[in-house]
Design brief:
This protein is mostly helical and 83 residues long. The protein has one domain (2-82). It is built from 3 helices and no strands. The chain crosses the membrane at residues 5-23, 29-47, 56-79.
Amino acid sequence: MIKTMVWCIQLIIWSGYTIIEMISNRDQFVAKVILFFVFAYLAYLVAETILKRKKIAFSITVMTFLSFFVFQRIAWLVIAMSS
C-alpha cells in the first residue's frame, strides 16, 4: 500500500516537471537537464523518506519515471495522429 502511495506521489511530481518544462520552452538544454535532475532527486527523496529503503526508493523512482514518460509519448503520438 505504501509503495502505491509513493508511486502516485511520484507521478504527481513528474506531472509537475512536465508542466514546468512546457512553460519554459525557451530555456536552454542545460537548464532543462538541471531541472530534470532536480525533479528526479526530489522524487527519490520523497520515496526514500517514506519507504526508508534506498534501493527500493531508487527502483520505484526509475520505474515511475520510465512509465510516466513512455505513456506521455504514447499519448502525444495518439493526439498527433488524431488531428
